[in-house]
Each structure stands twice: as C-alpha cells, then as structure tokens.
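cache lookup: miss for this entity combination. No prior model stored, computing from scratch. Input as submitted by user K.M.:
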Amino acid sequence: MATIAQPSHDGPRRPNIASANVQLPAVKDYEQVDDEILATLVPTKKWFALLALAVCFLMVGIASWMYQIHEGLGVAGYNPPVMWGVYIITFVFWVGIGHAGTLISAILYLFRAGFRTTIYRCAEAMTVFAVMTAGLFPIIHIGRPWKFFWLIPYPNWRLLWPNFKSPLVWDVFAISTYLTISTTFLFIGLIPDIATLRDRCVNPVRKQILAMLSFGWRNSEAEWRHFVRAYLFLAAFSTPLVLSVHSVVSFDFAMALTPGWHTTIFPPYFVAGAIFSGIGMVFTIIIPIRKYFKLQHYVTLNHLDAAAKLALFTSMVVGCAYIVEFFIAWYGGVQAEQDYFWNRVFGQWWWAAWIMLTCNMILPLSLFSQKLRRNPSWLWILSIFINIGMWFERFVIVVPSLSHEFEPWQWTTYSPTWVDYGILLGSFGWFFMWFLLFIKQFPVLAISEIKEIIPPKMKGKGPRGGH
Amino acid sequence: MMQGMMGAFQELDATVAAIEELKHKKIGQISVFTPTPRHELEHAVHAPQSPVRRYTLIGALSGMVFGYWIAVWASEYWPLVVGGKAIATWIPYTIFGFEVMVLVGALSTVAGMFIHARIPRLTLTVGYDARFSHGDYGIWVECAPDKLKDAEAILRHHGAVEVRGDR
C-alpha cells in the first residue's frame, strides 16, 4: 500500500513525480478528506443545468434513433459500399475512451504510480459509462435492434449458435467482459467509501440504501485484508483485459482484406490510440471538476503533469503508428494500398486526415513544455482537440477504406445525415447524464485511498512509514 | 458467555501498542477497525494471508476451459463448413478462452472476498462505531467476563479516547 511520507510543496519535482509517494501537502488529516470530498455531493443549480443539457442531448439522440427505426437504415448516411459510418466510428471512439479508466485504475495501480490515486475514481466511472455508450452503437448500427441478442450464445429453440470465427462475436465477448469487469472494479473500490457515506448520512431512507450498497462494510482489518488482495487480483485481470479489448475491436477491421485495414499493426495502434483518447477525456472531465469543487489540493498540478506525460507518450506512439502505416503501404508495394493512403492524405479525405494528424500528433507535442503540462487551461483545451482528433482518427480508418477499395467502380463518397449527427450528440448526452448523476451520488475522489497517502495521527514522535 | 469491550483510538501507534499488549496477554479475540488499510495493524494482528487467490486461480482456470469449450462445442454442433478450413479453430478461440477466463476469474475473486470478509452483512454487529470509517481506529476485544477489566485497563492505558463495554 501507499507509503507515508513527509509533506512538501506542490512545486515542480524532478526527475519523476509518478512515484508511489505522491503527497498532498495541503491535506492534513482524515477528517478533512471526508469533509471536503463529501461536500461535492451536494447538488447545485449549475449541476442541475448541466444535467438538463445532457438530458436534452440524449432526447435528440433518442428521437433520431426512433426516426431511424421507423424509416429504416436508409435515413443514415450509408452509401454502398460505405456501409460502416458514424455508428461504427462512434462505437470505436467510445470504447477507446473507456480504456484510460482501467489503465489509470488497474495498470498504474500495479505499477504503484502514486499520481493515479486522486484521479482514478473519475476515470473508472468514465470507463463504465463510456463502454455503456459504446455498447449501444452496434445495436443501433444493425438497424433491427431487437435482434441483437442473436449474437449471444445461448441454448435456443432455433438450435442456432453464433459463428465463433466472426470478429463481431469476439467483440460481443470482449466488450461484455470489459463492461462487467470495469463495473465490478468500480463498485468494489466504492464499497469502503459508500460505508463512509452511510455512517455520515442523516436521511434514514438514503442511509438504508447506502447500508445495502455498502454490504454492511465495517472497515475491519479482516475485511481490508481480503479487499486489498481481491483488488490486486482484479487489477491484474483488468490489465491484460484492457490490451485485449481494443485489440479485438481492431480485429473487426484487420481481419478484412480492405486496403488500410488488413495490417498487423492495428492491435497495438488501437490500444495506444484508445489510451491516448481516454486520457484526453480524463482531462476534459477532471479539470472542470477540480476547479468547480475546489479540489486543486487533491488533484494537484503534479498529478496533471504526470498524466500529461502519459498523454504525450501515447500521442507519440500513435504518431509513430500513423507513420508506420504509410511505410508499410510503400514498402509492401501493393498498388491498392498505396493509392488508398495517397487518397487518405492528399485526395478525397485530406481534411479529415489533417484534422487527425494536427490534433493527435502535432498539438500534443506542446506537452514537452513543463509550463504547458502544468497549465490546466491549456490541458483542457488540448483535451478537446484530442477528443476531436481521435473521433476523426476512427473516421479516417473507417470511411476512406470503404470508399476506396480495390475496384474503381466501388469508389464513392460518404456524408453523414442529421440522423447520424443526432445519435452522435445523443451519445454524449447519455454519457454525461450518467456521469453527472454519478458524481452527486458517490465520492468523485476515492476517500479511502486518499487517506492512505495522508500521514496518520501518531502519539509518538511523528508520522511513520508503512511498507 | 463471552462479552466485549470496545476502545476507540485517534493515533495509529497507540492502536498498534494496544493490540500488541492485548495479544501478548491473551485477553481474548481481537477485531480491529481502521478507516484505511495499514500494514502496521496487519502486522500487529498477525493475520494469515488472504485465501482469495485460490478463488482467483480456480475461477480463472474454469473460465478458460469453459470459454474454449463453448466455442469448440458450438462449432461442432452447428458446423459452418468452409473448404480448407477446420470446423473448430483453436487460435481465434483463444479470444473466448481468455475473455471468459478473465470474466470468471474476476467474479470468483469478488466471491472469495465476499465469503472471507463475511459480506454482505445485514447488521454492523457489536463493536463497530461510525467514527471508524471517518478517522479513528477501533479495537473490539471479545473475552470472558472476568477479563473485561484487564481489557479495559489496557485500552485506557494506551490512550483510547473512549472505552465501552458491549454485549
């Protein structure tokens, strides 16, 4: 568990601050942690306004989807052979967003990266809601959403089983496992904090609900011993799961012979892109939260600095993958591949490709500057560009390939319709509605883990370190 | 009939010292409450290693076997015959083996934690106090009635801010 260390100032530290002994010098004791974090649970007018806005976006999405169900998939922008469009792009986008949560909560936990402590709860919640959002899109995309359960293997009167060699069935297993494990991981981590909430709650009905949700957690040493061990194993399971899920999503593309898709670089390229986009979304969420709830002394500039370094690293991995794709197309000598990549950057889809390259490769280079890494306003603006860039990355993967396959008679174009955009907007409404509801019901920072890095009260000479 | 004595502490080292003395004098069964996991308390209690890892191993292996089995069995039961291709192919089925291994392994881990931590629990039982989730440490000593006074004396000696008897 975390090491207890002497507090110090929140100034830049070298060579590396992503170590286990990250400190919160402005947080003095356990009582302060409880008081300040639980204070974020009080609903405010601004919160209601944001929730109303999210619900409005969701209504637009639902209305667009209802219209599509009534009229058929023709109202979406599909233009054969471009039969994957905004829905698949947005599916991959949201699955990607869901990766940073598990990276921050599980992988960084195993690596004992201390800066995760104050941001991981937000990231975990973001993961669950992003995967919930992603899961809707294949269902929307199939046009007849009431048939989606055909992909699930279960004994049925038709005596039919899904094709286990199909990447779409791999997706069902990967995404449903990821959603289950992410939700479990989030909820298990929440149990001690729910117990804290339960013990401080005065409303009898709410107290009863919290008592049930906390499973009667008592903070006993025996409970903690099993909890810590289980949490470690969950983290160990989640780590390869993160890598597998987006690899499996990339197989949806890489298993096809389509130019631009049939390449072995896709799994690592997708995983790195997913983590990059997820960290972008973490910044989008955590920076307003720390400002609005006045939690700057919990989510310190040191934490943002460390997360920004991770964003910079993954941006460079993604940038490297973009370059390697071009190299392979040139070195492979396949004319269709070469034509496709030329068309992607200098032809029909140049604008989308350059949005992607600017947002994902060029702008993140600013994070080499420590001054900018420690500037929350710039990080937030950059995170918006990363979100946009990563959506366009998936656009560039999906649409240009399908619109420029092997035969010239197949070459076509693609324009999303208002239905596509409406459902896209609705997905953001769905995601933020759940997130906003979450942050008013449960602590947005992990109370019990933050207490681990606060020096405990001692009767003797002073704080003493753990192991 | 066993009875109990609860002591609430504000300092970690005082709690550790009280636990060590209670254990040394073999006063009774000790339960410790802490707002956050601390190695100091774990060492003082001399707790055995958590057996949760066994649930993890058994769950993961069972899940992996099931993941491979469902894919192979369904392929044989409903064969999709393609020239030159095997009916059941092990390499792609590794995805099912892996995903179901993770799924069942993780859920078994949670089940193991629940079983050994004895949750869900309908009542918070005696000895618990709401302050133990806030910032204080607690020791609950369950002992024979004739040892209650010794327990109380040890808890007070080490600086418990509150000591109370409970049945």
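stored under new cache key. Chain A is about 65% helix and 0% strand.
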